Amino acid sequence: MTVQLDARPPVAPAPGHRRRTPGVRLSRLDTRYSPYLYIAPFFLLFAVFGAYPLVYTFWVSLHDWDLLGSDHPFVGADNYTRLLADADFWHAVVNTLGIFVISTVPQLLAALWLANLLNRRLRFRTGWRMAVLIPNVTSTAAVAIVFGVLFGREFGMVNWLLDLVGLDGVDWKSNRVASWVAISAMVDWRWTGYNALIFLAAMQAIPRDLYESAAIDGANRARQFWSITVPLLKPTIVFCVIISTIGGLQLFTEPRLFHSGTNPIRGGPLRESQTVTMYMFENAFAPHYNFGYGSAVAWLLFALIAVVATVNVLIIRRLGGRMPGGRAAKGDSR
Amino acid sequence: MGANPRRRRAAAALVAATALLVTTAACGGGDDAAEDGQITLTVDVFGQFGYEQLYQEYMAANPGVKIVERGTGGNLDEYSPKLTQWLAAGKGAGDIVAIEEGLLVEYKANPDNFVNLLDHGAADLKGNFLEWKWNAGLTADGKHLIGLGTDVGGMAMCYRKDLFAKAGLPTDREAVSKLWPTWQDYIRVGEQFTAKRTGASFLDAATNTFNTILLQTAGNAQGYSYYDTSDNLVVDSNPAVRQAWDTTMDIIDSGLSGKYAAWSEEWVSAFKQSKFATIACPAWMTGVIEGNAGPGAKGKWDIARVPGDGGNWGGSYLAVPKQSKHQAEAIKLATFLTSAQGQIGAFKAKGPLPSSPQALDDPAIVQATNEYFSGAPVGQIFAKGARELKPVYMGPKNQAVRTEVENAVRTVELGQRSPEQGWTDAVTNAKKAAAK
């Protein structure tokens, strides 16, 4: 936003030169409009690949739109009323929120802890910092397939390890909570390091003298962490929470590839780990090919993300308010 | 030369414009006729159709045609949504596309996506196909022919000889066939097998067996399963569905199933690790078993007759989408691939059972054996029943309904639902799916 404000055209030339030559007029047009031209590419691309599909999806969601059919009768809000009463949809919403909470909370806490470790004086510091990002550069599909095999019921390594310590194996794919945990493990494996690096970057911007004066006042490391690091990181934490919310609620590849066999899009025989995006796909494509209904799912998902992101930001602010040194709260009010 | 900057700029512009023109022309050309008049025909398939050798023959006889196959070895669950998207977008589909019988009805609902083969003289080909196979390719009014039949899915029971020997059961295919005239006999044999604790289950997954029993029972009774021939959903009123359900529940109750979700990674691992002894085996499944169990299991598998009586599962059609730019050539190739000779070639390569009566009578089929399956006379086992196959009618949302019912079977198999709860789920969810 600030970028746009700064990019305001320069002040108009002094009055008195009322009569202008064409050249002057052209340069005036230039100063007034070229900033818009410079930012236009983003907005053009956004219009084509962001806004247009959004609006078109809404238009489709108001129709009975069979993907192969040639006529698509208008049905108004019918898809939405049916969807709101659709138990499978709400089941998918609960799954998505469950996986989101199980994955995001430990992930951000672990990332914070990792970043704190990486911020200390360590040997091979750059090496460690690069190492935490490695899971993020592996392909999601590969991760999901490998984890799908690790969490196999009969031939999986996780159940083998459980067996070694004398515990019963878990049916990771058809037990609702177990499948959430398995999928969260994949998400965390991939994204914890990424968030840790973002936290680390923010931590390095915190002035050293704050820690020094805290140390002189007798604050130990834990106290320094909670009273200085965390409050000053708040804008970054809000950013990570929002990004994780968007990613977490749109979770698709991990749960989809976690299941294999017939109809993996259901996420298990009783839809144990079917997320909202998977439910959208199931309706818009195989086996239902009901594009209108699938589009309605997409729009409700959009609304859901907006609600959850808002709630998250409110919670984080509330938490920050209670902490000492909450002055960093100004940072996120932009 | 090049001294005058203005001229140089003009020359550069000319070069750029020419390059642009050439690129545009190349784009517009796409897969169209190249300069030597050669065209490329794309064939979209899933699984194993066994056409490679036939393409070579066809290309040798027709130097102007180049054939590219896509999707070989792929999963039907991934192929069919892609095909639907191509058709919906009006772009992307091959010149010939394979359609599985369970999905054919959905595509027939919008026949305008495909070339009407009757407009191109296909009526003469009728005698090349089993009558029901031909008829299933036609729309309800009989005026539009969408697809030419490739294979049918005659049924058998494949079994592991080594595991049978370990459990003290006979291993000879004649003797094994005599063990299970009915599904109740099959369950009894399974119980004997399980009692011997070989470390393997008797069968792979209850869902596959359920589907086999259902298609057999339905074929022998009214000739329809989830939908009647007027396209009414009869999942809860068709006795064939309930009968197949009850038999499957007996199988689950006797603890015969290894519970490996069909087509999953775990299922494939179970093949490799010899974790089950029998699998319901339509003709096309022999290729799947060979691929999954791998060369190490060669000679350990054999094929016996299926319990109960006959039945048909699967089989496909070749269609030409209207978006194809080479419709005439594509129809010619599809006709060749589905001819008696083409079907025999495919059978020899990968085992799909011909739907052409001439091919079924051909010595190449009748005398065929399969080395992987201990030299089993696959031609006799499968082809014998193929002409008397009783087809099962598939309704408009067959695939979605089948998914719901099979998932209900799976929940009972995994102990998540009691058989009665499972049945209630199956009926409720099937009705919901059919209404979508």
Structural notes for this entry:
The complex is a heterodimer of chains A (about 325) and B (about 425). Chain A is an all-alpha fold. Chain A has two domains: about 30 residues, no CATH class; about 250 residues, MetI-like fold (Orthogonal Bundle), CATH 1.10.3720.10. Helices cover about 70% and strands about 0% of the residues of chain A. Chain A contains 15 helices and no strands. In chain A, helix 4 packs parallel to helix 9, helix 7 crosses helix 9 and helix 14 runs antiparallel to helix 15. The longest helix of chain A is centred in the first third of the chain and has 40 residues. By secondary structure, chain B is of the alpha/beta class. Chain B has two domains: about 160 residues, Periplasmic binding protein-like II (D-Maltodextrin-Binding Protein, domain 2); about 220 residues, Periplasmic binding protein-like II (D-Maltodextrin-Binding Protein, domain 2, 3-Layer(aba) Sandwich), CATH 3.40.190. Helix content of chain B is about 50%, strand content about 10%. In chain B, helix 2 links the parallel strand 1 and strand 2. The longest helix of chain B is centred in the first third of the chain and has 25 residues. The radius of gyration of chain B is 25 Å and the shape is globular. About 5% of the residues of chain B have low confidence. Chains A and B meet through helix 7 of A and helix 3, helix 11 and helix 18 of B. Chain B: This is Extracellular solute-binding protein. Chain B: It holds the Pfam family SBP_bac_8. Chain B: InterPro entries: Bact_solute-bd_prot1, SBP. Chain B: It comes from Micromonospora globbae.
Spatial shape of chain A: flat
Rg on CA atoms of chain B, Å: 25 Å
Write out the strand line-up for the largest beta sheet of chain B, numbering strands in chain order: 2-1-3-10-4
Q: Any idea what the CATH superfamily of the largest domain in chain A is called? A: MetI-like
Work out the count of structural domains of chain A: 2
Uncertain spans of chain A: 1-8, 323-334
Strand fraction of chain A: under 5%
CATH class of the largest domain in chain A: Mainly Alpha
The CATH architecture of the largest domain in chain B can be named as 3-Layer(aba) Sandwich
What proportion of the residues of chain B is helical, as a percent range? 40-55%
What's the architecture of the largest domain in chain A, going by CATH? Orthogonal Bundle
The average pLDDT score of chain B comes to 89
What's the CATH class label of the largest domain in chain B? Answer: Alpha Beta
Report the mean per-residue pLDDT of chain A as an integer: 87
**Which class do the helix and strand fractions of chain A yield?**
mainly alpha
In quaternary terms, these chains amount to heterodimer
The major β-sheet of chain B equals: 5 strands, mixed
Strand content of chain B: 5-15%
Pfam family, one (chain B): SBP_bac_8
Protein name (chain B): Extracellular solute-binding protein
Region (Disordered) (chain B): 416-436
Keywords (chain B): Signal
